[in-house]
Amino acid sequence: MAMPAAPLSNDTPRFRRARLRVFAMLILGYASYYLTRNSLTYVAPAMVAPVGGVAGLDITSVGLITSLFPLCYGASKFVAGVLGDRFDPRTLLAAGLLVTALANIAFGLSSALWAFCALWCVNGLVQGCGAPSCAKMLTAWFAAGERGTYWGLWNLSHNLGGFCAPLLAGSAARSLGWRMGFFAPGAVGLCVSAAVYAICRSAPEDLGYAPVEEPLDPAPERAPLPSPPASTAQRPTAPTGPRARPALLASLGLVARDLRIWLLALTYLCVYVVRQGVTSWSVFYLLDTGRAADAGAAALRVTGLELGGLGGSLIAGKLSDALVARASSGRVGMRIRVVIGYLVALALALAAFARVPVGAAGLQWLAVFAIGAALYGPQMLVGLCGAEIVGRGSVGASEGLLGLIAYFGAAMAGLPLATLVKRHGWGAFFRVLTLCSLLPIPLLAGLVSARAHSEGSADTARENSK
């Protein structure tokens, strides 16, 4: 059947339903990445237990395994981001989840330290397929005026996966043995991987709809999608000519030469030092300073981090969209202003947590909640700004580079911060985290009027039409 003269309108209930299905799969898919990423954190206590654990495994061994992950993940996020500009992001998202699920299952079948290290490196190397692929599809399916809201909603998948990990992996390990703590997340990952591949589509054009924003930068053709089944063969589809995407090396070069991306990357590094530092060491801080009686009580005090992150990322997205709607230009700059405000709030929340007195359990929980609310907003918005600064065809490379630098920050929050605490105490720990919260502000000051890639191209198009 002949192709229609024009793509289908995306201002229809049918399009909105299709977009909602894709969005739901992005949330579920990335939450499953988080589930398979965090399983070790909650299964490790059962692995080192004297009864039912792994013979010869101790806390130092677990530290060795976990120290490999951020470096592997950061490198993979960069590579997967660049590849995501060349290959179908839907396939990349589903394939990465499939492999990380299999890595969890294989981990549960292993008993040797070398195998644990190797498999967790594999897990880290494929985890990077998640965020850049989701960023590509979010950018393709949602226009700039609503993107902050939906990016914030998608960011809840971090919290959803982080919340489910102790419930599924931790509970399975405690009740059924440590191996089941890896089998259960692996089984979930396998099922969700199949659902993502079946339901997601990389862009509206894959279903015959018009793009929500016109592609503005040339790009190589992506591998074609499979032909539709006979039952849908007569459905109108969009033209299948080459998609506008930059070549692989050209995409990376465009991103790497953009000073604004490097300023965002340094901001991300600082944010991830704080994030990983709070996540890894808050329980130890509460125990060492006598603010919690035992590990269970300390863990309960820090549950506010994820809950605060839920609200913080949603509000950040809505607030930045409201500023974008009122601004005539400089979309990225509007979001940067929200990031700066959140970073100031993060520094204040860290100061409050450090000063909550012994015995004030409720205030400790509230301080951690405030840290989460102030922390997840910048984490979400920096990635969104990176996606909007570059063209649609370079979003994956942008997210990959940002992720690579961010996880260097996460690695710095491990052994370096532990050594700092051992030598100089918890006061030095909080001073470093506060410095990391405030250091990005002068870096971002020059971006408060930054424009999105589509704004610059739209101006050029208007000039050419005169």
Automatic annotation (TrEMBL):
SUPFAM superfamilies for this protein: MFS general substrate transporter
Principal location listed in the UniProt entry: membrane
Membrane topology: Multi-pass membrane protein
Protein name stated in the entry: Major facilitator superfamily (MFS) profile domain-containing protein
Region called Disordered, residue ranges: 218-242
Signal peptide range in chain numbering: none
Record InterPro entries: MFS, MFS_dom, MFS_trans_sf, OPA_Antiporter, Sugar-P_transporter_CS, Sugar_P_transporter
Gene Ontology MF term list: glucose 6-phosphate:phosphate antiporter activity
Keywords noted in UniProt: Membrane, Transmembrane, Transmembrane helix
